[in-house]
Design a protein that fits this description.
401 residues, five-stranded parallel beta sheet, 17 strands, globular
């Protein structure tokens, strides 16, 4: 019997990869809850920052775009850059994609991945109790386990962030109504921070955003104000965005320091153009140089911040949400066995990937956010599936088909 390929994760990148493997006739088993990060770790009422053109999960055959789903579901078509996608619609689209193209999805978790003893391939254990051998493994676990808490904030919560404790991460909240009537500080200046702040304020909280660094809270230009003499990309009109979106092939040959810098800076903290009207005049903003520390006292959480003028200020609230993003760290992927993690070539915690998204361990592939350090910022977004999935599936089929 031919050993299957295992795809771990059922978000956009996992589902897209699995669909492309199916289309190539590669036996595949796919594990995970469909769209679970979007369903459980995004706030209710959220709207996607990405445009409809940037929100389609790539499929090996036509008929499975976001527009196709809207037609099938009988909801208004989402076509232009001015159309805004509710997160619920995107979750339903992902589940429709899964039911259509990855019907054999197994809703179980992968507990461990190790080398198969005495034979090629990998030994996997599932939380159902099953063990089996796969000839190759694709890690497509998305944001799971990668929430980042800066050291100054982490020091205040020895047991880690918690939605019911004094300090949490934005990924831990689905219902922001729990903060109605309470004071809330949101740390961050990106879309996650600004939209979390707006949704909490609209639910009745008194909210302050603490924006770190030398930038200011800012919002993107609306589609009609984009420069017309530059090429279009899923992220706006700019030569750099166009190149990073459609030609990420040479990205992995750039110096490591530059690659990591571009992943952080390109498409950095910026609110969606449509969020500005809901934010300004509703949410207080404190723009600071950095957060020096945090402490909990008398059921309040206090931040000590250094201002741009060089002074020190203390800000307190009933709860602090760190909308401080995600950081790829192989060490945090506990399901990968110690031997595999030791063998993997990494750069600042991220796997170093070669052609076809292959890691330094033969048969082990990574896609989605962990691939951004090798293939560029487009891997942080759903539209990255258009580049990644056919290439990964093609490489894997050629090597193990």
């Amino acid at each position: 019997m031919i050993q299957p390929v295992a795809v771990i994760g059922a978000g956009p990148f996992g589902l897209s990869t699995a669909a492309h493997l199916h289309a190539r006739g590669v036996p595949v088993r796919v594990f995970g809850e469909p769209m679970v990060s979007w369903r459980d770790h995004m706030p209710a009422g959220m709207l996607l920052k990405s445009t409809p053109a940037a929100s389609t999960i790539d499929a090996p055959q036509p008929g499975h775009t976001l527009v196709d789903y809207c037609a099938a579901a009988g909801i208004p078509r989402l076509v232009t850059d001015e159309d805004i996608i509710p997160v619920r619609t995107f979750i339903d689209y992902g589940q429709w994609f899964q039911q259509s193209l990855v019907p054999g999805l197994e809703r179980v978790g992968v507990v461990s991945v190790d080398r198969a003893p005495g034979r090629p391939g990998f030994a996997l254990k599932l939380d159902s109790g099953e063990s089996f051998t796969a000839r190759a493994v694709v890690v497509a676990t998305g944001l799971s386990g990668l929430a980042h808490l800066p050291g100054a904030l982490a020091a205040a919560v020895a047991d880690g962030p918690s939605p019911t404790g004094p300090l949490s991460h934005s990924s831990q909240h689905h219902d922001l109504g729990r903060f109605s009537g309470r004071e809330l500080i949101v740390v961050g200046a990106g879309q996650s921070a600004l939209e979390t702040a707006v949704l909490a304020a609209e639910a009745g909280a008194r909210v302050r955003v603490v924006a770190r660094g030398h930038g200011k809270v800012a919002f993107g230009a609306p589609p009609w104000a984009q420069p017309r003499l530059r090429p279009e990309s899923p992220f706006g009109r700019a030569w750099s965005l166009w190149a990073l979106s459609y030609y990420p092939h040479p990205y992995r040959f750039l110096p490591a320091e530059l690659r990591h810098l571009l992943v952080r800076r390109v498409l950095g903290p910026l609110g969606a153009w449509w969020l500005r009207a809901r934010f300004e005049g509703v949410v207080q903003v404190s723009e600071v140089e950095r957060v020096v520390g945090a402490e909990v006292a008398a059921d309040r959480t206090a931040l000590t911040v250094r201002t741009h003028a060089g002074g020190v200020r203390r800000l307190s609230a009933d709860h602090v949400i760190a909308a401080t993003g995600y950081r790829v760290d192989i060490a945090a992927m506990g399901f990968l066995g110690h031997e595999l993690r030791t063998e993997l070539a990494v750069s600042r915690g991220a796997p170093v990937l070669g052609a076809g998204y292959a890691s330094s361990v033969p048969g082990l592939y990574f896609t989605g956010l962990p691939a951004a350090a090798s293939y560029g910022p487009v891997m942080r977004f759903v539209c990255g599936t258009e580049f990644a999935s056919p290439r990964l599936a093609g490489h894997l089929a050629a090597a193990y088909g």
